[in-house]
Amino acid sequence: MEKLYYKIAEVSEILNIPVHTIRYWETEFKELQPKRNEKGKRFYTAEDIDVIREIAHLRYQKNLNITGTRSELKNNGGDAALMSKTKQKLISIRNQLSDIYEQL
What we know:
Layout: H1 8-15, H2 19-28, E1 35-36, E2 42-43, H3 46-61, H4 66-76, H5 79-103
Antiparallel strand pairs: 1-2
Helix pairs in contact: 3-4, 3-5
């Protein structure tokens, strides 16, 4: 079962992206706004992780600069968030089908 929220160190480890880079991207991309507790500690959702993954793809695989990456994210209209929601729905369907299969 996936967690609802991840700490920045966990996200850094999952995506192999330095913590300072993730913090910097928060200042550059409005699509990336993790939740914070009263002490200011960041908590990332699966959707946030997908956005970071998309930013990393655009920056490192497509070699876009910050401005180009920002433009691509805006033009894609949140493809990362849509993919995350689709993934969650597919996981739910798979679990339901597994339950049905076990009942048979």
